[in-house]
Amino acid sequence: MNDYKNNGPDNAFLTPILPDLEAVNRIIRQQMHSDVALVGRIADYIINAGGKRIRPVLVLLMAKALGYQGTLHQILAATIEFIHTATLLHDDVVDESELRRGIPSANALFGNASSVLVGDFLYTRAFQMMVSAGNMRILDVLADATNLIAEGEVLQLMNIRNTDIDEEGYFKVIYAKTAKLFEASSVIGALVAGAAESEIDAAARFGRALGMAFQLVDDMLDYAGDKGVMGKNAGNDLKEGKMTLPLIYLMKNGNTEQKISVRKSIEDNDGSCFEGVLHAVRSAGALAYTHRKAQQAARDAAQALSVLNSGQYKKSLLELSSFSVERNY
User: Fold this and answer.
1) Distance between the two ends of the chain, CA-based, in angstroms?
2) Could you tell me the pTM of the whole model?
3) Mind telling me which InterPro entries this protein's record contains (predicted)?
């Protein structure tokens, strides 16, 4: 299994939980089993495609930072990865994506219908796994998160080719579609550790802020990143008609010509304007602004950890918050 992309010095936060991560991978392999061959093939393909595994890492680190000594956090981390992978399968169908992590997306390889249905399989398998944990509060957190993620995806769909969306609307979307699962991952790590309510609240604030930082950087990298490093084409959001923060900034602060180009690109799907918009986003301060917002979210995440005792796991969580804004993939 291609476990962790670029697992080097910039991912030093993984070191204290490597044995847990290996256990999570074993659970994922076991739980992917299905008597229906196509289910196993597609699930295996998308999960083995690699990725940062940040959400399960967050479960493991938070549980350990709060003193957990058992193994249930490993099952819950695998559950989170299944939920996340299901959303990726569905997202790629909705977005008509051709690449995921540098290789053909599952929908491009196996077709839309198969991808949607295997995404459903992963969702339901995730719920079987979380029920087996026997903790109603954890089940409640994950059920709420899964429901809000679905609402966030619908909200994003409703805003496709809508140049009137503002920052408030944008942040509402990225909280629901991305940050909520980060928040849930952090919270269930605290819950499985039997943490105090003040610690659970801190875990929620950390995960929420970290998720916002991650999505902000993703949206910045869509314009600034390198395809060979990111494993996807730059400018995808623009071509798909998504008004992310760099474009929202440009619509508010750009000159008349730049605003007209954004409207043509988004509202009319006018490909002749794409290069001009990409240049404007990179030259008008939109990426720097987006990065500053991500840095503030990362600082908020780090601040939330002030209630935790010092130790290697808290150190890794702080390193993770730094990684969220320093990464290039």
Assistant:
1) 20
2) 0.91
3) Isoprenoid_synthase_dom_sf, Polyprenyl_synt, Polyprenyl_synt_CS
Three-state secondary-structure class, residue 2? coil
* C-beta atoms surrounding 201 within 10 Å: 15
Query: Hunting for tokens 């404007």 — which residue is that?
Result: 280
Which residues face 99 on adjacent strands?
A: 104
From CA 114, how far away is CA 298, in angstroms rounded?
A: 37
| Beta-strand relationship, 99-100 and 103-104 | antiparallel
Written as six digits, the tokens of 21 are 């991560």
Residue among 265, 264, 255, 263 at smallest CA distance from 286: 255
- Say how far apart CA 78 and CA 185 lie, in whole Å: 11
Would you say 231 and 202 are in contact if contact means Cβ atoms under 8 Å apart? no
b/e 108-129 (16+ beta carbons within 10 angstroms → b)? bbbebebbbbbbebbbebbbeb
Alpha carbon distance 211, 174 (integer Å): 8
Residue with token string 């690699």: 50
Q: Which domains does the chain have, with CATH numbers?
A: 9-326 (1.10.600.10)
In tens digits, the chain (329 residues) has pLDDT values of: 434 444 444 688 999 999 999 999 999 989 988 888 888 888 778 777 766 789 999 999 999 999 999 999 999 999 999 999 999 888 888 877 776 666 778 887 788 888 898 889 999 999 999 998 889 999 999 999 999 999 999 999 999 999 999 999 999 999 999 999 999 999 999 999 999 999 999 999 999 999 999 999 999 999 986 655 444 566 789 989 999 999 999 999 999 999 999 999 999 999 889 899 999 998 999 999 999 999 999 999 999 999 999 999 999 999 999 999 999 88
Tokens 């780090």, residue?
Answer: 302
Element of type H or E holding 155: helix 136-158
What are the angstrom distances between the C-alpha of 96 and each of 57, 69, 142, 230? 29, 43, 27, 18
The SS3 of residue 100 is strand
